[in-house]
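User:
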Amino acid sequence: MSELHVEDLVPLLLRAGQGELPVRERELAILRISYLTETSGAWERHVRLGLDAGLTLDEVAAVRCGPEHPDWSWSEAVLLRAVDELHHDAALSEPTRDLLTVHLERPEVLELIALVSVYVLAGYVLGTYDARLDDRLN
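Assistant: Predicted structure:
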């Protein structure tokens, strides 16, 4: 993977969730990080958006089990493992990053990292102020 510079981060963060990742994968990632950070407002909002993106109620429930759930496809399990690693280690391991690039292009991997980061930040703010995501954020 080629080098990424600090000045590349601001545009990357501003683009988080803006369309590099397929919608289904984006909603899986947001649901997983919302579950891991116990951000109920984001979880509730993205359950609805995930269902609109084609997730089933069983899949939404399986998000709580993480990548080990037997019903995930290989690529979905890798995506969920990536979210778990970002949450727990603040980085992707080289093996997980390499597995992600089998299914996702580099811009999509970068968006995934930015997306998880933004939702962690949102979890901090929402948790601190016991707030809910506003419907105006649609």
